[in-house]
Predict the 3D structure of the following.
Amino acid sequence: MTLDLTDENLKKAYCASLACTGIGAAASDCDSVMPQLVKKVVPQNMQDDYPTRLLICATTVCSSTLYGWRVVQISPTIGDTTTFQQLFDEWLKTIVRPPLKPVN
């Protein structure tokens, strides 16, 4: 049994993905962290390798047995003004797909 692809479940998967990349507070208190991420810009020192790490983590989390979703392998584009909320809205929501339905 996998979780449906809803905004709430996608938010949980995103928090788990952020935690996987080293943002530990995202795993323990997602509801508190998400509002802070609306305006928080991805730090300059993370912009080079973070897109790859985030894609790897999102793929691992979203395709796990808990979620069972498919992930299009497109790394996010991160610039000097990119917020973590934008990564959720403009990247993660566009690359995650529901599982394929079995053909009967």
